[in-house]
Design goal:
The protein is 26% helix and 20% strand. It has 105 residues and is α/β, with parallel strands linked by helices. Helix 2 links the parallel strand 5 and strand 6. The longest helix has 13 residues.
């Protein structure tokens, strides 16, 4: 996981999603619908899960186009599973850290 949080706007740009809500909301990780907490983004694959997403403690949600969640900022995309996978990979990526000069160099 990255040490710093990224804005919902940056995540929207990463996956080509539109934003409902606060684009400046800071997100530090992705988690499942039932496990997500404040500062995390979660996702749903079907509009029938909208009530569960509204009840989630997640700060934001990745949703399909036919879903509206009141009281929560959302990334709206036709492919929530793909967006979630890309965001998960992005948030897990470790920044490059130079390890120094090898003794044999």
């Amino acid at each position: 996981m990255k040490d710093t949080a990224v804005s919902l706007g940056q995540l929207a740009e990463l996956v080509g999603a539109s934003i409902q809500g606060d684009s400046g909301l800071m997100i530090h990780s992705l988690n499942g619908l039932e496990l997500a907490r404040e500062g995390e983004i979660t996702f749903i694959l079907d509009s029938r899960q909208c009530p569960q997403a509204e009840a989630s403690a997640a700060s934001a949600c990745i949703v399909p186009r036919d879903c509206t969640i009141s009281g929560k900022s959302c990334l709206v995309t036709p492919e929530p599973a793909v967006a979630a996978a890309r965001i998960h990979t992005f948030l897990l990526a470790k920044p490059f850290e130079a390890g120094g000069i090898h003794a044999s160099a």
